[in-house]
Amino acid sequence: MAAYSVNIKSSRYVGVDGKNDVTIRDDVKGQRAFFMAPQWARFVGEMHDIDVAIQHAMTLKPTNFKRHTGRNWHVSVMHEVPIVDVQHWYVRKTDNSLQPTPVGVADVFAVEQPEAGSHPDRKGRAATRSNIITMLA
Question: What is the bridge-based pairing of β-strands 22-26 and 31-35?
Fold first, then answer.
């Protein structure tokens, strides 16, 4: 149970327990991501690079961003699918390949109608920069 919990979006919560471990949860989608305090610190330290990857992906620049935040958790941003994905992974013993588990949380980039001078996406919409904290937290 969280010692402190904040409702950021209608169904998205960030909670911190007594050990300073952090949980991001989406009650509607049934998604969760768990960070021990050192993992959360590493994740927060990556936020600038995550935001840069989001900006690149939104302008359709090739983006294949993936960072390990500790204890088999990874954050990724790719230009093919407009999401930021915080996912728990495991190493398959048969071939040592990295495989995702169903545990994690993801959010879609925000898009809006194009304005003059904007860079539209494949569907003619202009991508807007969205901060990782606003998206995932």
Answer: antiparallel
Predicted structure pTM score: 0.72
The phi, psi pair for 81, rounded to 5°, reads -125, 120
Sort 135 into a burial class: Cβ within 10 Å, 0-12 / 13-18 / 19+.
Answer: buried
Domain membership of residue 55 as a residue range: 37-136
Cβ-based neighbours of 94, under 8 Å, separated by 6 or more: none
- C-alpha pair distances (Å), 12 with each of 27, 59, 90, 112, 134: 7, 27, 25, 22, 10
How many folded domains does the chain comprise? 1
Which helix (H) or strand (E) segment holds residue 41: the answer is helix 37-45
CA dist., res. 54 & res. 12, Å (int):
20
pLDDT along the chain (137 residues), means of 10: 72 89 90 93 92 85 90 89 89 94 84 46 44 49
